[in-house]
Amino acid sequence: MKELNCPTCPGRRAPRQLLCPTCWHTLPGATRNRLTIRDPRTPMRRQQLRAALADKTPLPLVRVSR
Fold first, then answer.
1. Residue 12 carries which DSSP code?
2. Is 62 part of any domain?
3. Helical (H) or strand (E) element with 54
4. Distance separating alpha carbons of residues 13 and 20, to the nearest angstrom
5. Closest alpha carbon to 17 in 31, 30, 29, 7
6. What local confidence, expressed as pLDDT, does residue 21 receive?
7. 66 assigned to some structural domain
8. How many domains are contained in the chain?
9. Is residue 17, in this structure, part of any structural domain at all?
10. DSSP letter assigned to residue 39
11. What is residue 3's predicted lDDT score, i.e. its pLDDT?
12. pTM strictly above 0.85
């Protein structure tokens, strides 16, 4: 399996993951749960995550909508 760079640290992530395991577990539980939901709003939540990462928001403070 090909690994990719984590967008927030030098760690590695799998192709279908948004972040490396360390960064993923740094996100608040509610944010992690919402990012795992697969529904019509999934792309919006992923975009919110990408925007927060681009703004350099600390991972424990990242929030996405329901």
1. E
2. no
3. helix 42-54
4. 4
5. 7
6. 96
7. no
8. 1
9. yes
10. S
11. 78
12. yes
Asked if 64 contacts 49 with a C-beta cutoff of 8 angstroms, the reply is: yes
Whether the CB-CB separation of 32 and 46 falls below 8 Å is answered with: no
Is it the case that residue 1 has pLDDT exceeding 80? Answer: no
How do residues 3-62 score in pLDDT, each as one tens digit? 799 999 999 999 989 999 999 999 999 999 999 999 999 999 999 999 999 999 999 999
φ/ψ bin of 56: left (φ > 0), alpha (ψ from -120 to 50), beta (otherwise):
left
Range of the domain at 39: 4-56
In a domain, 15, yes or no: yes
Look at residue 4 and give its three-state secondary structure.
strand
Place of tokens 């740094």: 26
Helix (H) and strand (E) counts for the chain? 3, 2
* Sign of the CA dihedral with 25 first, then 21, 37, and 27 last: positive
**Could you tell me where the DSSP H helices lie in 1-66?**
21-26, 29-36, 42-54
Q: 14 φ, ψ to 5°?
A: -80, 160
